[in-house]
Specification:
The chain has 345 residues and is of the alpha/beta class. Helix content is 52%, strand content 8%. The protein has three domains: 3-50, no CATH class; 66-229, P-loop containing nucleotide triphosphate hydrolases (Rossmann fold, 3-Layer(aba) Sandwich); 235-344, no CATH class. α2 runs antiparallel to α3 and α2 packs across α7.
């Protein structure tokens, strides 16, 4: 505890500023916890509690900067390389191996956040996500104080073994402190995150995600027990993922028919098949807006989205390797007419 903390406590007490007083006390408790004096930290937290004994519970009202999120019911197909790493995460947490801080990094749409939801579901743990909108404050020094309070509260929960805490896109508060373009305030925020992770209860699982791994603070990377790369999708992986996503949505829209061969041909028209997040949106929108009286209308819509061509030319479709039946589906022209047109051409 620093002299500044004592001065602030006295100041806030005389001003009858209860919220600021409690925030300062939470920061003091976190400092005690970081220095190894856990009993004193819990005693300070007990004094802040309305009860005579300290029995902290995890709820959105107790933890100021988090909110609970539900598990995902949608499938999460992952390449074998990533899947094996995630199984390792589940095993490490399940066997209480003391490995509790993870960083998932990769491009947007690679499945990082959805994977966190699945990990929490498999482990039967409640999942809470840090709310950066409330954590980051425009007042000088307040963001750092909020981060300290957050970790102090997390370290004081009654059953940390039942929780997973998600820092989704943690780069919002943890940038490279050596970057000359970085604001000094955010540099201090990053230092506060480092300090918080160092003092984190080993029974509490924290998983962070980022799209900006290359610009990440190297000291922060070292704080994580394991960093998992979500960019490891081959073209074959993405085609497999697309088929699983298609199967999931076809079950919801039972009027739509299944034609994997044509579906795969359409995706192969793309120069680069997108990651699962974008794939899911493409497929879902194509099916959801399709004509319920035409079982393959979604394939026509998907082709139009992929090629940006609403009215494909019959001859061009033939040159791309589509069969007469497939051309009929994509163009809306009957097979007999397609055959006559191609013969004439």
């Amino acid at each position: 505890m620093k002299k500044r903390n004592v001065i602030n406590l006295i100041k806030y007490y005389t001003e009858h500023n209860d919220i600021a007083f409690r925030d300062e006390a939470y920061e003091i408790a976190n400092d005690f916890y970081s220095s190894g004096d856990r009993e004193l930290a819990e005693y300070v937290m007990a004094l802040l509690s309305s009860a005579n004994t300290f029995v902290p519970q995890m709820s959105e009202s107790d933890i100021s900067f988090v909110h609970k999120i539900d598990y995902s019911s949608e499938p999460l197909p992952l390449p074998e390389l990533i899947k094996n790493d995630i199984l390792g995460v589940v095993n490490a947490i399940g066997h209480n191996a003391g490995i509790n801080k993870y960083l998932f990094y990769g491009a947007p749409g690679t499945g990082k956040t959805e994977t966190v939801k699945q990990v929490a579901r498999i482990l039967n743990r409640e999942l809470y996500m840090v709310d950066f909108d409330n954590l980051v404050d425009s007042k000088l020094g307040q963001t750092t104080k909020n981060i300290a309070n957050l970790f102090a509260q997390l370290n004081s929960v009654a059953h940390p073994e039942r929780l997973v805490i998600l820092f989704d896109e943690i780069d919002a508060i943890a940038l490279d402190r050596t970057n000359s373009n970085d604001l000094r305030e955010m540099g201090r925020a990053t230092s506060a995150v480092l300090k918080g992770l160092d003092s984190l209860n080993e029974q509490l699982v924290v998983i962070a995600t980022t799209n900006l791994f290359d610009s990440f603070d190297k000291a922060l990377i070292r704080r994580f027990d394991s960093c998992i790369d979500f960019n490891r999708y081959s073209k074959e992986d993405l085609l497999d993922v697309a088929q699983i996503i298609l199967g999931f949505f076809l079950k919801k829209f039972d009027f739509a028919g299944k034609n994997i061969r044509l579906f795969t041909k359409i995706l192969n028209q793309m120069d680069s098949i997108p990651y699962p997040g974008e794939l899911k949106n493409l497929i879902k929108i194509a099916i959801a807006f399709s004509n319920p009286n035409d079982e393959f209308d979604y394939l026509k819509r998907l082709y139009a989205s992929v090629t940006n061509n609403l009215h494909p030319d019959i001859k061009e479709l033939q040159e791309k390797g589509f069969t007469v039946r497939e051309i009929e589906i994509l163009s809306g022209i009957s097979k007999s007419q397609v055959s006559r047109t191609l013969q004439e051409a």
